[in-house]
Amino acid sequence: CVLVPGQHYSEEFGKLSMIRKVPVMKDGSFILTESIAILKYMVQKYSSSVADHWYPADLQQRARVNEYLSWQHMNIRAHASKVFLLRAVFPVIMGTEVPKEKMDAAVEDLNQSLNLLEEKFLENKQFIVGDKISLADIVALIEIMQPLGTGLNVFEGRPKLIAWRERVKKGLGEKLFDEAHEVIMKVGSLPEKMQNNSQLEMLRPKFQKLFR
């Protein structure tokens, strides 16, 4: 299901996850948090029906996937999410536009991470791990789509990244890719959806502390 901003602080959600973060997976009585842990759990649980290239059995190839998944938390993921929050959510929560210097700094941090994605992880390969798509590519592109959904074209001037995006999209299937990003690409309707949201007051001091 899709949560509105602040809903993960509700009492109902707290019964599912005391750390109050999304995503959360419930598999029978087993509850697991953190997106990367959930992805690894799912691909290993269904390994008999999931192609090996998604999370290779080969020790070194799997290590490359894990290398990217470990790096991205404080880089692509952190910076893309910050740009998304500043552009799409901050004005609604705080009732004012983001100061230009904060926005410029956030975009610059994201650009530096994108440079590393191109130069270290992609290099001249088709995908992050080589010639086949993996979990690393999915996670990378998902995060980059966040600022794109706010109208910031982070692919502009990056032909290598554009070509890689198209390969990932084809590898996933264009229909599935578009369906998966339907919500993020309509983030412009977020202010309307957040009107009269009782959780906004709870979020405001968190935003003040996070982006002061």
Can you walk me through this structure?
The chain has 212 residues and is mainly α. It has helices at residues 11-16, 35-45, 59-94, 100-122, 135-149, 159-172, 174-180, 190-194, 200-210, and strands at residues 24-27, 30-33. It contains nine helices and two strands, in the order αββαααααααα. A two-stranded antiparallel ribbon has the order 1-2. A hairpin with a 2-residue loop joins β1 and β2. α3 packs antiparallel against α4 (100-122). The two termini are 31 Å apart. The model has no long low-confidence stretch (mean pLDDT 86).
**Shape category:** globular
Q: What does the average pLDDT come to?
A: 86
What fraction of the residues are assigned to beta strands by DSSP?
under 5%
Helical amount? 55-70%
Instruction: Please list the strands of the largest sheet in the order they lie side by side.
Output: 1-2
- Give the biggest sheet: 2 strands, antiparallel
Number of helices: 9
Oligomeric composition of the shown chains: single chain
Alpha-beta content class: mainly alpha
Q: Detail the poorly predicted runs.
A: none
The string of secondary-structure elements, in order, is: HEEHHHHHHHH
Mind telling me the C-alpha Rg?
Answer: 18 Å
